[in-house]
Design a protein that fits this description.
Elements lengths: L13 H23 L3 E2 L13 H21 L2 H25 L3 E2 L5 H26 L1
Antiparallel strand pairs: 1-2
């Protein structure tokens, strides 16, 4: 009997939605912490008189990015998934600098972009671990 083909995961699942929600909450709280510490700020954001962070990114951008990454991780083996998380984490400092040039983000001189690399690497590692744990829990 030939081996069955690898089952493709759906993009929108209960587990990916749960992890997108977790990513949104974690991202918002981390932004609040770092903005509160004065390490960076968001000069252009929705409802600036209410929110000191960019809620558009933490409520929409980060969850969508998280779901795309989780979908990609569900299609590949663990080694390729680790490389994907590493690659995305390497892209974050580049995207931060681009966002700074566009005026969406401003860092103090104390901030090193390598912090973002390690932070997002840890962030996506934790989110993906929760995602795969939730998937195992249902079996």
């Amino acid at each position: 009997m030939p081996p069955s083909p690898k089952k493709r995961s759906a993009f929108w699942t209960k587990d990916s939605f749960t992890c997108a929600l977790l990513a949104s909450l974690l991202g918002t709280y981390l932004d609040l912490y770092f903005v509160g510490k004065g390490l960076y700020q968001f000069p252009h954001r929705l409802l600036p008189e209410v929110f000191p962070v960019n809620i558009a990114f933490t409520l929409f951008g980060l969850p969508i990015i998280t779901m795309v990454i989780l979908y990609c991780l569900s299609l590949v083996n663990r080694l390729v998934g680790s490389i994907l998380i590493l690659f995305v984490s390497l892209l974050v400092p580049v995207m931060e600098k681009w966002a700074e040039q566009l005026g969406f983000f401003a860092h103090t001189d104390k901030w090193l972009h390598v912090y973002s690399f390690f932070g997002y690497f840890l962030f996506f590692t934790i989110i993906s671990a929760v995602y795969f744990w939730l998937g195992k829990k249902e079996k």
